[in-house]
Amino acid sequence: MWVYEKNAPADHEVTMTVALKVDQAKRALLEKTFWEVSDPKHEKYGQHMTVDDITKLFDVPQERVDAVVEYFKKSGATTVEVNPNKDMITVKMAAADTEKALRTKLGFFTHSERSGMRIVRASGHYHLPDDIAPHVSLVGEMLQFPRLRLKKLQGLKAGAGSWPNGCAASGCNGLVTPQVLAQRYQFPDPSDATVQGSSMAVAEFQGQYFKDSDLKAFGTSCHRNVTVDKIIGGDEQSAGIEAELDIEYIKGVAPQNSLTVIYNAQYSLLDWANTLNSMTDAPLVVSVSYGNDEVQQSSTQYMLTCNTAFMKAGAKGISILFASGDQGVCGRSGCGMIFHSRFHPDFPAASPYITAVGGTDFAGSSIGDETAWSDGGGGFSDTFDIPEYQKTAVAAYKASSDADLPPQKLWNNTGRGYPDIAALGGQKAPYCVTVNGAFEGVAGTSASCPTASGVFALLNGLRASKGKPPMGFLNPFIYQNPTAFQDVTSGVNGGGRKYGFKAIKGWDAATGWGTPNYAALSKLVVADVNSIVV
């Protein structure tokens, strides 16, 4: 957990993302367009927007922008940068000036398990003047705290797999390697030119850098081209296990596709999304191993503002995939030690506007059927209603006697269900990763997410070779084509507790529709819209 350490020094530079109010009618129009261009059955499928299109649609009043910019400049900001859509402003200013501008106190917070991690947050609520507040939805980086990878999911040495080691390193014995994933998910040989030509990215946050030497060692050992083509936000050539897991496996799946690392030092989801949406050449598939419980978010408005950013990305043709979490249905807040309290759904995994990726284990010791990972995140949102694209699937799950659902008091029956799909991620056979020159096992949906993202990057490359637009927001396609995924029908994601959601035939709140079958998906994504199997 994050613990207050001391007051922030007066001269410490603070970076804030200020989200401006977007008229509700304009946001509704964005959402309408988002659904249309994302639905394979709609005539506008694939007709994605540009950055300029979204700017014109939002039509944020210039006086609103000017008022907020002027306020922070007068308050002592060293830089004030308005994004292209004019709905977010990045402000940098000294901590002392920030405290006066927001009428709050700032402090350094450190993590109880990671003493080297330090962030600045407000120690209480912030306030804006009456003439400025109506123009602003929220100020990011003030109240919300990020999650960090659990130590129990890294540094794992033993793997239960009985398959041949696909990497020339003894540390990979019994662990998941790119070759294991290729066999299970049936994606093509790296030399296949038809899957090249699409772009992808991973999101990394404070302290999660990578070393080129680690990527080279992994690539040489595991016979993949593991390189980063573009870095946004910082490159310190230091090993971060989260970053190197993401990079080594999204490239392990799609080694010929260009990769961007979007780094954000602030642990700011909003700032990261703002960077992505401001790019005119944004990567088309983005993997994000980041999240917290919905109850840990600073406000519902914060989640709604993130959702708007996700819709902007989807409307532009960007596929965003989030890891579903690594603590089962109880989430990071837990369900109590004695009495079983309410489940804690994840955000952004439970957002209706992104694709959530859950975790699985192999059912046996060989490459074959999978079972739900007991610690994989999944369940139903307490904040967002069931979106149209999954209503039938969710209803079928709840109606099935096989589901043996947990007591209703523990979860929200009307909430958006997640995950949407899954991939290997459990501790039975962790992923083999190179970190600081050594090979070790790493588990979690943070492994599942870049794997699934790499598959969709391959599919975008296949579409590009046929002159077709990128897939964009994936969920309408996924829910219309469930047979293109390998159903997972066993396991429960209770995290070792009494209750959880069971994996059954069809969609479920432990593994979604199951894991990718590239051979089936590749046929669907190049078909004419009207011939897609529903």
Descriptive keywords:
534 residues; Rossmann fold; single chain; alpha/beta; 2 domains; eight-stranded mixed beta sheet; disordered C terminus
Entry summary:
By secondary structure, this protein is α/β, with parallel strands linked by helices.
Shape: globular
Number of helices: 13
* Amino- and carboxy-terminal Cα gap: 45 Å
Number of strands: 23
* Overall CATH architecture of the largest domain: 3-Layer(aba) Sandwich
Strand content: 15-25%
Specify the CATH class of the largest domain.
Alpha Beta
Query: Rounded to an integer, what's the Rg over CA atoms?
Result: 22 Å
Major sheet: size, sense and barrel closure? 8 strands, mixed
Which structural class matches the secondary elements?
A: alpha/beta
Average pLDDT:
91
CATH superfamily of the largest domain: Peptidase S8/S53 domain
Helix % is 25-40%
CATH fold group of the largest domain: Rossmann fold
Give the tally of structural domains. 2
Poorly predicted residue ranges: 529-534
